[in-house]
Write a structure and sequence with these properties.
The protein has 123 residues and is of the alpha+beta class. It has a domain of 78 residues: hypothetical protein PF0899 fold. The strands form two sheets. Strands 2-1-6 form a three-stranded mixed sheet. A three-stranded antiparallel sheet has the order 4-3-5, with no helix packed on it. Strand 1, helix 2 and strand 2 form a beta-alpha-beta unit. Helix 1 crosses helix 2. The protein starts with a helix and ends in a 10-residue tail after the last strand.
Length: 123
Amino acid sequence: MHEFSLMDSVLSTVEESARQAGALRVLSIDIVIGDLIQAVEEAMDFAFEALSEGTICEGAELNMTFVKPKSVCQDCGCEFEHDVFHNKCPDCGSIFTTLIQGKELYIDKIEVDMPDEPSNDQT
């Protein structure tokens, strides 16, 4: 189940960034996952719950956006979405295509809880 290793990497990056920013805790994490990564949403949720327990990310909301594969035809220039197994150009039938999206995995946004700024009142 490679979702655990994927989520471990995501959480490590999020935790490091949040701590460097001085955050108290992470409120939400938005990630983008290409369909060709073949990550199962339920398994990603499970891995997140298991791996975030006891960390600065525990209780955070995890939002996942899945991206369909998209390629460009090297013969006619057509850009097209396709499934995991079929990337033949729908316009000219060429098999000479280049993948331009669908293998990504990145953190799009992190929302954190920051400590209150110290007051400058001297009364």
